[in-house]
């Protein structure tokens, strides 16, 4: 434990040096916190948050001049959405993963998910939110919200507000920060499934500190940070406002709720981890069957329910685009379940409960970047394709990669995230039923008809995917190596054979 504390201190010290460096380069904080989860396509020079634009266009011009007041309906919806994302993590993801491992490792997975989530939430409010959602440079924010300072506006005698995607519409910044904290937490927890059943508990925690600091926060900043719609007051300021946004936002990539930030980011970290930690003892020679598909089904169901907050909450308002994301999350997931079951039936002659649960998660993953960016028809196609493609990801691709990705993090979240990110560029087209993108945030005008280029947008989406893969891959490799040198990644062989529940936590999930 002393080594763990010292290692975490070392990681935080390294972060401190980075934070100071960026703080020196950063400009003043944005007048409102940057919006989050609807990255944009920019056919012109402005970054865009495609959904929400139509409603923003109807807002009266004078609303921007007056000090906006949060709407109680928006605030309520965002708080409910935050609770739903907590539900999908603890207990949802924990039970989904826990049921998939052997009974001797059940509690170890539950512990890794619950403690990782708790630790990341704490780090988020200490410095993570500031690094992700304050003004700095194209790659990372500054320290203007360190320890959440400034969220109470002393001069105004009220809480600071955060932008949404509509001009003149805001929510309390503390609500936005809490919602985003759940995203950071579940992203790190997703990685746990890749190296389950053989990693040290202390190694998990130290790796998460390093990866969260140097991969999650920068990618979140690059994809989701911008100055907010109210900052675009005239054509004269457009270039300056664009220059303050995150790198991938500047490119115009669409990511409604985290296809790059959450799923691809975590999946790459998990894949690297499965190589670095090594294969489980007996992998390829003995069966590693899930000990409780009942719990896995319960976990998958909770994930599906919670994901409505994850996706629809990313609209940041209780409006039509939240409803679009809601119904797309519903439709795509159902389609993916059917596709996976059909694929299993064709390949193996039988559809399995594990396959149905995996199909649900695959559909949820694939629709995440597209949720508020595509029409319902596009969502159904994305869901169907994700079921088939992710089935290949956990079977054919997994054999090609040769990694012991215990719970198929890359096969589902990586493959599904990439598929969803690319298809977002296709089905966002207004010619295919999508809502299109904003071409000019000053007037909040949309790209219409044939002016939307599918090829151009898919290329923009691909650039965002590639940046995320490379960034997460490099950070993960370095972080795992640091952890291995400092405290070691893997438990001893005898402890792995006995099971991590007893050897790491002194408990058992089930009494015989």
From TrEMBL:
The chain crosses the membrane at residues 77-97, 109-127, 174-196, 203-227, 247-272, 293-310, 322-342, 354-372, 378-397, 409-427, 458-480. Residues 1-23 form the signal peptide. It is found in: Cell membrane; Membrane. It is a multi-pass membrane protein. Residues 77-510 form the Ammonium transporter AmtB-like domain. Keywords: Ammonia transport, Membrane, Signal, Transmembrane, Transmembrane helix, Transport. GO terms for cellular component: plasma membrane. One of its GO terms (molecular function) is ammonium channel activity. PROSITE patterns: AMMONIUM_TRANSP (PS01219). Its main location: membrane. Coiled coil: none annotated. Pfam families: Ammonium_transp (PF00909). InterPro entries: Ammonium/urea_transptr (IPR029020), Ammonium_transpt (IPR001905), Ammonium_transpt_CS (IPR018047), NH4_transpt_AmtB-like_dom (IPR024041). Gene3D superfamilies: Ammonium transporter AmtB like domains. PANTHER family: AMMONIUM TRANSPORTER MEP2. Belongs to the ammonia transporter channel (TC 1.A.11.2) family. This is Ammonium transporter. It comes from Aquabacterium olei.
